[in-house]
């Protein structure tokens, strides 16, 4: 495990990609950052094959720019095709993909379920590609809460979707992905997709209220429960919760929030 590797990270400047680069570099690996800001475009393919020269493993940690199902699906499928083709030409040994716990349970059509359907299409496309791909499904990140709070804020009130999840720190997911990337197993022995999540289930609206209290606003945080969403029961039930074999890591959301405040 101490062997130095050359690993490319797709989405290297993102919420997960940035700590992933730090983790890999801390382990002594040579990291190739794949992002548009680095002159590499996974949609057009510009600069992709050159960037993968000599790379052992590609970690795809990119997120689609739109949560809408059709747009997200088009993004993921185009990027996956280009990455797989460039990996094959460059002699990359494996791809590690981060996905989301429970994505294969959702029908789509709602505000978030469509994005999950797009992730399933991405998983399938990678499995059908010529370069062996391993998948890690993660719970929603701690960092996701503040973003949703900002999106839903109007004036002194905010609305967040009704959701039950087992929030996990992006850094912990990054460490798990790095471990997978540094082992050349190619696939899980029983074909199962491993999962990683935080230590306990948490209600999104309660976590959003914690963030609002620390920030001094908005004054009200309300839960929006869309009864017409075909995936509603999954969101408010256990649809996003990990299975019994999941790896549970890291702090609770409140502990993570306390640590971040102490660092400021």
Can you walk me through this structure?
- With 264 residues, the protein is of the alpha/beta class.
- Helices cover 38% and strands 18% of the residues.
- It contains nine helices and twelve strands.
- The strands form three sheets. The chain has a seven-stranded parallel sheet with strand order 2-1-3-4-5-9-12, with helices on both faces.
- Helix 3 links the parallel strand 3 and strand 4.
- Helix 1 packs across helix 6, helix 3 runs parallel beside helix 4 and helix 5 crosses helix 7.
- The relative contact order is 0.15.
- The mean pLDDT is 93.
Return residue spans where pLDDT drops below 50 for at least 5 consecutive residues: none
Element-by-element helix/strand order: EHEHEHEHEHEEEHEEHEHEH
- Count of alpha and pi helical runs: 9
Helix content: 25-40%
**Global Rg:** 18 Å
Q: β content, as a range?
A: 15-25%
Distance between the termini: 34 Å
Number of strands: 12
> What coarse outline follows from CA principal-axis ratios?
globular
